[in-house]
Here is the input.
Amino acid sequence: MELKAINGDGIDSWREVTLIYNAALRQLETKMEILNDEFQHVHQYNPIEHIKARIKTPESIVKKLKRHGYESTIDNMIKYINDIAGIRIICSFTSDIYRIVDMLHEQRDIHVLSVKDYITFPKASGYRSYHMIVTVPVYLSDRTVDTKVEIQIRTVAMDFWASLEHKIHYKFEGDAPEHIKDQLVECAKMVSDLDERMLQLNNEILNIGQNREEAEEA
Ligand code: 0O2
Here is the structure.
């Protein structure tokens, strides 16, 4: 594995590149924590269960560049690989996902480049998740670098399914036996039903709480 350093956009080394992507991830993570804290303060409720962040390994970047037919250069990875910096936001309920998406759109310094809503339109495999590619400004001593970050937002149940499916995908190198694929599709349906029922249950509980409060105030 080798990434050739070629001067581009003022970024000329892998170390500098990872520094910038790491900074973008930290900034986004802090932003999400602040939004979660504010939400807790206003609504006494946390939409975010937890956050995972990672920088893609050089091996994985080179593999992806090769898959798309590009030479392994620093320039190409910055230009063509959207998920060098990735953040995964895990929520309890599907409604929280769209709440977070709205909050991200409201952030003035975050620029949304693209979205893929695999919740409204799940993949044939059963995969469900909300993906966004955004840019975050990273302020260096002499310049600002708008840095791409991939955001994946999903429920705990969707995450559970995706982790197992990912493991199976790698184990069988993308060619899992049909009966396993069928079972995964079936499990995805169960996950979707579970998410919906848990959301309904939560809404019911919230309504009961609200009615009690109103009755006490009256
Ligand atoms: P890895 O090994 O997880 O990093 P793009 O990144 O936009 O150039 P793509 O595939 O068009 O490429 O983007 P998409 O559909 O938004 O998927 C991006 C990432 O979502 C994938 O990264 C996976 O991490 C995850 N993902 C997408 N589809 C599936 C799926 O069917 N199952 C699971 N478990 N995860 C999925 P990579 O780089 O493909 O893989």
About this structure: Residues 14-157 form a domain with the Beta Polymerase; domain 2 fold (CATH 3.30.460.10). Strands lie at 48-55, 85-91, 111-117, 130-139, 144-155. The pocket of 0O2 is lined by residues 60, 64, 82-83, 116, 123, 125, 127, 131, 162, 165-166 (CB under 6 Å). Residues 178-217 form the longest helix (40 residues).
